[in-house]
Amino acid sequence: MHPACLPIHELEADCRFRFSRGSGPGGQHRNKVETLVTIEHIPTGLIAHAGEARNQNENRRAAMQRLRCVLAIGVRAPVELSRFQPSSVWMEYCRSQRLRISEGNEDFPALLAEAMDILAANDWDPALSAKCLNVSATQLVRLLSQYPPALGALNQELIARGRATRNRS
After folding, report:
1. pLDDT tens digit string along 23-59?
2. pTM for the complete prediction?
3. Which residues, in sequence order, are CB contacts of 152 under 8 Å at separation 6+?
4. Do 41 and 3 meet the contact criterion of CB atoms below 8 Å apart?
């Protein structure tokens, strides 16, 4: 199972947490309390941070969501295309070839990881990958564009393969 798809408590078992004082607005509370959260996924060495909230628990949740997105981009799980079926989580958010999910949704990193794994299995071909996932290529690219590093990773792979890319905003 892809680490971005793991339940939070299982993923946390593979992580190292660091807490420190944040800088910036927030005044005395921010300077007295260690609200900045850094999470490192030990098996991969990938790191995420959060410190914008004045509450450590809020920052911890935000950092975990960010770590799951970083894992979705940075870790590839092998896919056997001949036997591939979109996951039940994917199908929950996909209706009539339209994918409806926001970046803040707890399931977003799992969908992002599934999309990136399928893209990698299809030699980074968005049209072919979208067909495997039962969405339009536009919907697939929109999913990636919600987390800009994902779209950047796709563009880097396309450039590495000598395929032209369009500037998307």
Report:
1. 655 555 555 567 789 999 999 999 999 887 778 888 8
2. 0.85
3. none
4. yes
